[in-house]
Amino acid sequence: MDYILVTGAAGFIGFHLSKCLLDQGYSVIGLDNINDYYDINLKYDRLKELGVKRTDAEEYNNLSSSTKFDNFKFIRLNLQDREQLPNLFKDYNFSKVCNLAAQAGVRYSIDNPESYIDSNIVGFLNLLECCRHNNINHLIFASSSSVYGQNDKIPFSVEDNVDQPISLYAATKKSNELMAYTYSHLYGFKTTGLRFFTVYGPWGRPDMAMFLFTDAIMNERPIKVFNNGNLERDFTYIDDIIEGVFKIIDKGTLSTDDKYALYNIGNSNPVKLMDFITEIERKIGVTTKKEMLPMQPGDVTRTWADVESLKKDYNYSPNTSVTKGVGEFIDWYKQYYRKNKNI
């Protein structure tokens, strides 16, 4: 049986992608180290949605079968494990690999640089080596809009120069792109990088703006608004992201001699931060206090994705409005925390 390997399967995007692939009949092995960067209970609950028992998922290097999907198995493993990751590739025939595992977060990278090198550089190199030595046809991997830094040309294009990252997180993601290009050039397997733009939606990460704002408002705390609210983000709903990633996995690379491809994947419709906050307040029915703060180190003023090449090559069509996306997240938040925390 051929499997697709999805790393970061207990994470926000990895969970949604795994579920999408399973619903479409693909066989998936999900990998995650379940680190404590944010609440691990949320990660285990995502896996529970995929039919993996927490007691099974807690064991390191234990391949757990799903009780919900016959075609899903989960393994808790670090990407940088140079003994066990190669063994996993030897034991299973992966038709494709989708790497969504990474140490995420721009601000966290300022105080915790080592974890970014370990996961995003050493771990990614280990994954590339496994792909090289096991005849993997196609590696799809997550990059980030953070690589654009303070780029003032809009919308952001993959043709733009991104040689001046302003956070270590961004530097590691740019490094991933360079490493993937080199391996494609040297060893002939195909790699596709995806620069994600501000993904939000149900089961989202607690360190992201959508979650932080909602959590603060629901718990009657003021929200922190950086750069005095003078920010714009290309907020992209999770379903639109998954649509794009799935099409690349399902269709594969285009019939071209170029082994390496790079795309932006976003909504291509930037929204002012204050308008985004207003929509959250409207949905919840509360106008909250706002703590206006200066710009944070490593942050950028605006993001805006040029996604024309992804539309052209894969018929990508993001169409979820902020109104709908915000509503879906808040409905999930209320249901999830009412169930788990009795609020």
TrEMBL record:
Record keywords: NAD
CDD domains named in the record: UDP_GE_SDE_e (cd05253)
InterPro entries, sorted: Epimerase_deHydtase (IPR001509), NAD(P)-bd_dom_sf (IPR036291)
Pfam families registered for this protein in UniProt: Epimerase
Signal peptide positions (record): none
Location of the NAD-dependent epimerase/dehydratase domain: 4-266
PANTHER family: EPIMERASE-RELATED
The protein's name in its UniProt record: NAD-dependent epimerase/dehydratase
Organism field: Gillisia limnaea (strain DSM 15749 / LMG 21470 / R-8282)
Organism ancestry: Bacteria, Pseudomonadati, Bacteroidota, Flavobacteriia, Flavobacteriales
